[in-house]
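Section handout 9: paired folding examples.
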Amino acid sequence: MRTPSASSASCGAPTRSPAWSAATSSTDAGPSTTSAASRCSPPPPCDSPARADRSRATSSWSSRPTRRAATTGSIWLAENHWDKLDAAYSINEGGIISTEGGKGKQAADLRRLARAHGTRKIRTISRRVIRRSQFGPLLSALMRTTFTNTIVDCGIRSNVIPGAAEATVNMRLLPGVTGEQAVRELRRTIHDRRVKIIVGSHDQTPAEAYQGIRERRRIAASSTDTDLYRSLAREVKAQYPGTVVTRALYEAGTDAEPWRQHGIPVYGLRPYPASAAVLEEMHGIDERVPIPGLNQGTDMVERILRAVATGG
């Protein structure tokens, strides 16, 4: 499940110049799964009432990485070969260069949103901001804890009504939201006592899952008072004059955790402007990067690394 994410770096740029965000804190707290099973009624139960004498649903979530990530990714490397990963800094995925922001009603509402207090006021302003933005879905995910059915499993034949169904729900938590609060919100939304919510996994108890979320929330955001961050800001501004550089949370999970757990600053960097269409293709079958952006970004990253390595 994820601790949501973040506010976009382009939000609040005082001019129409690009705004760049360095993602200094990842928001993914691990996969969360919710399974819902309803006898003679397709999931989710809250959308279509059960019409049989018995219904069952389970929801499970784990604060640990997936089995594959735990045995092949950066977490496994950190646990088994930390000496090969240990470094002064780390550059990761994340961060957005955007030309959105600037003047007019959107900029005014972004400033109001930054100062707003109270759920109703925040909700009203955020709806206007999301509606105007080409990055509306991303902004929406930064302003609320999200629940997404990513896997639904039910049925064995097309002519047989399923007797049970399971839905895996990916939960992304806003900073400050606990695992317990997220599960209560999920239960309130489902609003069906016949739906069983299971927290944890086959090798993790609910208490361990909740504790894992609490431990990850205690990891501090990466400092911006470092040579690498100053080099990032300097080179981004040189590449895209007038850019406002700021740090932000990131609405997705990355490989930053092992370094952040060791107190090593990690910065997310997407070193080229990306339109909403390009971002929507991320991890899809047509994922792509514009060639000019790839060339400019590669050159900029090289300048950043050389400046840090040489003390420039």
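Moving on to protein 2 of 2.
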Amino acid sequence: MEPAEYQRLKAVWDKKLKKSGFVDIESENGMLKRWSIKFILDAKRPSVLYRDEYYRYASHYLFEYKFKCRQDKQIWRFHTEGYSLRETAAKMGLKFDQVRRVVDKVKASLFESIKRQANDA
């Protein structure tokens, strides 16, 4: 599809969507205007969608959370990349419990942040 044809078609559908009351959650560059995670908070049991969405939010949180030290940030980075707590402890030469405490603390903060945002919506 040619760029001009795409823009014309996009304009037609944008107009139809606006008329229907549709509110886009993404900005023009494709990024979310604000986090939308209410379905995760309402989930009865974790699913693949939940897990994928969780790791996406956890990755974003890597840049929003004020970590106590570089080590804690690296632990969270490994967590967001899917490393187990034991793998992270082995990679960093730490005890399992040290890693678990950091992940639990940051995870609790992440969920509090998500709840606040969901309540503000």
